[in-house]
Amino acid sequence: MSSENVNIGAEPTGIPLFLRKSSLEVNGWRIPHFPRIDDPVVHIHKIQELPIREDDVLIAAYPKSGTHWLWEVTHMLLNQTTEYEKRVKEQVMLEFAGALEAVEKEPSPRILNSHLVFPHLPLEVITKKIKIIHVTRNPKDTLVSLYHHFKQLTPRASFTFDLLLKTVMENNIMFPSQYDYLRQMTEFEQTHPDHPIKHIYFEEMKKDPVKTISSLAKFLGVPASDTFCQHVAEACSFDNMKRVEDEGKKVMPKSMVDSLDQRGQTPAGVKQLDGGMPPHGGSPPHHGGKRPPAKMSFYRKGVVGDWKNSFTPEQSLEFDNYIKMEENKGFPFKFEYE
């Protein structure tokens, strides 16, 4: 099935097409729908064959766990700067259309990132033992963040938080469940005990960003004084990262812009770098004959415990039972929920 033909919108009722569980698998793991990718299976094989450099760093995370945040922090540490990266992380996100070509042209040290499971990642990530930064977040806040992220692409009233909650608990979402993702992370670590992996909890970084950044710098093997770590923490605070995004200082990859433009309207939360989009059915403003590039909002609240504003008491209890069931299968991660 071609992801090119997957509707990015929603049907009148039910889970949006692009969020539904795919029937395609590679190495026993489902493949998400990749926007602007003709053959997802071939794309995974291309990712697996990607040449890796010895000094590459990979940020691996389940969606909406804090990847954008860690990518910016890692950029500052490796480049010894508090200047922001001009691009969003999707420019070099392995599964994104066009990213593999961009990655090959990227100067070293490269900061790669992906939401894919290990069986879908470049094989040389393992053989060359590159450093992996794994960021994780409590499942309740992750789910709420997922909902608001995809709601930008699915403004129909039929796509509700309750619908996403049930779809996730039924394991019918397009990517593996957060628990399956974390279990495969643990399994990889157990079978590759000498591979350098740094686990970072979203909640711990919110609580003490300077301490987390200092620890990350040691893992990366770069100098970082207390003062520099403080400056990086301030630059990468939620308010500053949100401001940079709101001011349109980040460049989005063409595949993402094309996917948003394919809708013919501006979803909630999607902004333009210069000028606005017309109402549905209108003509785009003229900028040299081209539509101004779209910009999706990646930063909403960035707080721990925001799940309380979305879960009803009944939903919270239902999800708690789901969490208990999943953790009883064997699970080493311990989360903070407030």
UniProtKB/TrEMBL annotation:
| Assigned keywords, A-Z | Transferase
Keyword Transferase on entry: yes
Domain Sulfotransferase, residue spans = 55-259, 296-324
Task: Give the molecular function GO annotations.
Answer: sulfotransferase activity
Region: Disordered; residue ranges are: 257-295
Keyword Transferase present in the record's keywords: the answer is yes
Membership in a protein family: Belongs to the sulfotransferase 1 family.
> This chain belongs to which protein, by name?
Sulfotransferase domain-containing protein
